[in-house]
Amino acid sequence: MDTDRLLTDLLARVDPDRLRALTLDLVRIPSPTGDSDAVTARYAEVVRGLGLKVEVLHDFPGGPSTVARVPGDGSARALTLDGHLDTIHAPHAAPRVEGDRIYGRGAGDMKSGIAAMVEAARVLVESGVRLSGSLILATHSLHEAPVGHMEGLKALIARGDVFTDAALVAESASDALPVRGKGQALMELEVTRPGEVLHENTARPQGVPNPLEHVARVAARMLARGEELAAAEDPLLGPETYFLGQIHGGDFYNRVPVRAALNGTYRYGPDKTWADVEAEVRGVIDGVERPAGLDVNLRLLSNGLGYAVDPEAPIVGALQGAYERVTGRALPLCGALSVCDVNVIVREAGIPAVAHGTGSTTAHADVEWVELAGIVRAARVYLATAVRYLGVT
Ligand SMILES: [Zn+2]
Question: What's this model's pTM, rounded to 2 decimal places?
Answer without folding.
Answer: 0.92
